[in-house]
Amino acid sequence: MFGNHYFNMPIEKTWRWFGFNDTVTLRELKQIGVEGIVTSLHHLKPGEIWEVAEIKRVQDEIGKEGLRWSVVESLPVSEEIKLNSVKSSEHIENYKRSLINLSKCGIDTVCYNFMPVLDWVRTDLQYRDRDGSETMLFDLITFALFDIYILKRAGAERDYSSEILSRAKERYGQMNDDEKEKLAYNIIVYTQGFVNSAVTDSEDYISLFTRALNRYSAIDKAVLRNHFSIFIKEVVPVAEQYGIRLCIHPDDPAFPLLGLPRMAGSIEDFEWIFSQAASVANGFTLCTGSLASRFGNDPVEFVKRFSERIHFVHLRNIQFLNEGSFFESGHIDGSVDMYEVVRLLLNELHTRQKADRSDLRLPMRVDHGKKILSDFSRESNPGYPLIGRLKGLAEISGLIAGVERGMREYTNSNRSK
Asked: Does 105 participate in catalysis according to the annotation?
């Protein structure tokens, strides 16, 4: 079933590093077995050109520790592109120039998303799991009260069931002003500040956020899809010419929020995305946690359906509390069949080898992590503690090694028959 060289095709262990201000150093990452770095030019705004000198400055720092800049996460797509505004063409041209410059530096994998305004959403950043660890929660009732009573978004009530509306009203009445402020700040500013947020930290961040939402008032899913189509048909030929693999990240969570259109959350969504540009350069980031957040999605099915277009992998697990609420559980504990995901990814690498494809390196990072041990006394971005992610990396590395061993023994057993 598996060729002689199958087990020489590793899943590359990568780590998201937030640049020179990250509390986790590159030297520490090398010590814990990280092979590749996932990072971005965090100081540049969406729509700006990534110049070679700026790319090399970060790349050289990574190289000093014997590591490689494996994946760009992300080269952000500006709101102007998503809105197809008067600045869209200029920003798309800048995006293409940035891809060319990355290629000149030997960086060939670029993760991005097409989520309007919000990059990701959680309602509780300090949810306590049963083991005492701290993780992140999305709770639909809490989000509804934020939408209806804090943002006061027009027509928000129409997006929720009568039961959710009733419970949201009751819960809002039990919150004090500090709790309301913390909820709004976490959703709008704190979780977005390190991912090229559309809203900056300021006294009037709620009104700024509302204005950002209002820019999409006339844009539904069909219109957003059209804007994406314009973008992807422009950038994929450049990516293909210069050996860049683009990989769109699923929506997180993978369903519509705040009246905003979402277009990367279901099997049908990704079939449409890939239909817009046939090239394998038009690929995606397999984020198991984001995909699983949509009730009824099975990340295993996404791997089976779109394996040849997976250029980057985020392994993360979630546990549903009910249909509308979930928390981020341990990496191998939760609703995602992580064993089957890993097995299918290794099969895909074997298929690529037989097809003589150039992309035999498949970068993977453990996405997010629970706060444990010394994480409680160390500063980190939401979802990115050191020890919790290290635990996840150890678990996933062990799983990969175990699956590889099983495949090797299966192969040897068949040869001896």
From this structure: no
CB of 87 closer than 8 Å to CB of 98 = no
Q: Is 172 a catalytic residue?
A: no
The segment with the largest mean pLDDT, out of 1-5, 166-170, 323-327, is 166-170
What is the CB neighbour count within 10 angstroms for residue 136?
Answer: 24
CA distance from start to end of the chain: 13
Q: Please say if 247 is a catalytic residue.
A: no
Q: What is the pLDDT of residue 331?
A: 96
What class is the 6-120+219-416 domain? Answer: alpha beta
Residue linked to tokens 């049963």: 130
pLDDT tens, position by position, 156-181: 999 999 999 999 999 999 999 999 99
Which residue out of 91, 227, 249, 331 is catalytically annotated?
249
Percent of the chain predicted with pLDDT > 90: 86
Residue 34 contacts residue 26 (beta carbons within 8 Å): no
Instruction: Out of 91, 252, 368, 375, pick the active-site residue.
Output: 368
Q: Which CB contacts under 8 angstroms, 24+ apart, belong to 169-175?
A: 169/145, 171/141, 171/142, 171/145, 172/145, 172/148, 175/145
Model confidence pLDDT, tens digit, residues 335-368: 999 999 999 999 999 898 888 888 888 999 999 9
Q: Can you tell me which residue has the tokens 């947020």?
A: 197
Of 91, 314, 331, 350, which one is the catalytic site residue? 314
The question of whether 337 is a catalytic residue gets the answer no
Per annotation, catalytic residue among 119, 129, 367, 375:
367
Domain ranges of the chain: 6-120+219-416, 134-214
Residue 1, number of CB atoms within 10 A of its CB: 9
Rounded alpha-carbon distances, angstroms, from residue 80 to 48, 117, 408: 12, 11, 50
Which amino acid does the sequence have at 169? Answer: K
Helix (H, G, I), strand (E, B) or coil at 287: strand
Q: Which residues contact 308 (CB under 8 A, 6 or more apart)?
A: 280, 348, 351, 352
Distance CA 192, CA 383 (A): 12
Q: Which of 91, 287, 298, 350 is catalytic?
A: 287
pLDDT in tens, 268-280: 999 999 999 999 9
